[in-house]
Amino acid sequence: MHNKALLQKIQPGLRIASFLISSSDSMTNPEFKWKHFAPEIILWCLRWYGSTPMSYANLSDMLAERGVSVNRSTIYRWFIEYSPKLRKKLHRHQFIRTDSSWQLDETYVKVKGKWHYLYRAINKQGETLDFYFSHKRNKEAAYQFLRRCLRYYDLDNQPKTLNTDKHSSYANAIARLKKEGRLRADVEQRQVKYLNNGIESDHAPIKKLVVATGGFKIRKRAWSTIQGFESLWMLNKGQFDFWLRHDERETIVRERSAFMNRLFNVEVIYS
Fold first, then answer.
1. What is the gyration radius of the CA atoms in the chain, in angstroms?
2. Cβ-contact 253, 26 below 8 angstroms
3. Which residue(s) pair with 123 in the sheet?
4. CB contact at 8 A, 149 and 102
5. 147, 171, 235, 250 from 254: Cα distances, Å
6. 83-100 per-position pLDDT tens digit
7. What is the pTM of this model?
8. Which residues is 103 bridged to in the sheet?
9. What does the alpha-carbon distance between residue 72 and residue 235 come to, in Å, rounded to a whole number?
10. Is 158:101 a contact under the CB 8 Å cutoff?
């Protein structure tokens, strides 16, 4: 989509200036201490950039059209700083579901010209379980990823089936976790390609956002950015709709936005 059309598509009628709180209010919220912009502006930038394929320059222009002048480098620093915080806050509200099967897969992310691997897992409902970023695709990375996915599940609540690709690293990781008693002994690994269609499709929104960044140069910042992308994708998929005050279809986007604001102790009155 052309950049101008993209900017017009995202909340074209929104008037940011009518929502702003004073800078002194941001000083009273420890999450935004010493920031020169209202918390709402920072969270809008976090939500917009993490949900829509655009550049920081696009977002800076979009804000300028609505009367707020923010340099693109400032937006970049906000996203790097607050994405990991958003991930931690959302994780506290994430339900631990008992599912019969999980889908596990990895996609590629280039950092400074070298391929890195983003491991991802979803359940039968398409909800993101967890994700893991590694510079290698081997049995140790698969082990750390699967162990990370299992950390909040006791043996009785773990899936009976794990759908993976045919890379040998998963089989090694599963065998190791069984031996350690971290994974139920009767779990079945399936390596049938069509069974992983769900997670292959779920990769697409994340890959679009990654491509829109133009590439990463620093691995640590790539990981921070990916945490933002994954967190906003989980929110937009409806994984946290249980916590919304109102779940009417007409206001669902606004309610998800308000929920995200409340995670940072920010209340916005819409007019």
1. 20
2. no
3. 102
4. yes
5. 35, 43, 12, 9
6. 999 999 999 999 888 889
7. 0.88
8. 122, 163
9. 24
10. no
**Based on the number of CB atoms within 10 Å of its own CB, is 49 exposed (0-12), middle (13-18) or buried (19 or more)?**
buried
User: Which 3-state string (H, E, C) describes the chain?
Assistant: CCHHHHHHHCCCCCCHHHHCCCHHHHHHCHHHCCCCCCHHHHHHHHHHHHHCCCCHHHHHHHHHHCCCCCCHHHHHHHHHHHHHHHHHHHHCCCCCCCCCEEEEEEEEEEECCEEEEEEEEEECCCCEEEEEEECCCCHHHHHHHHHHHHCCCCHHHCCCEEECCCCHHHHHHHHHHHHHCCCCCCCEEECCHHHHHHHHHHHHHHHHHHHHCCCECCHHHHHHHHHHHHHHHHHHCCCCHHHCCCCCHHHHHHHHHHHHHHHCCCCCCCC
What is the Cα–Cα distance from 131 to 118, expressed in whole angstroms?
7
Among residues 216, 190, 23, 223, the alpha carbon closest in space to that of 100 is found at: 190
Residue-level pLDDT at 23: 45
**Whole-angstrom distance, CA of residue 157 vs CA of residue 71:** 47
pLDDT per residue over 220-255, tens digit each? 999 999 999 999 999 999 999 999 988 788 899 999
Burial of 217 (0-12, 13-18, 19+ CB in 10 A): exposed
Residue 127: closest CA among 158, 97, 84, 82: 97
Domains of the chain plus CATH, in order, are 3-92+240-263 (no CATH), 101-217 (3.30.420.10)
Write the CA distances from 35 to 55, 121, 137, 153, integer angstroms.
Answer: 22, 35, 39, 39
Written as six digits, the tokens of 244 are 């919304």
- What are the residues facing 131 on neighbouring strands? 120
Q: Is the pLDDT of residue 268 over 60?
A: yes
pLDDT at residue 26 above 80?
Answer: no
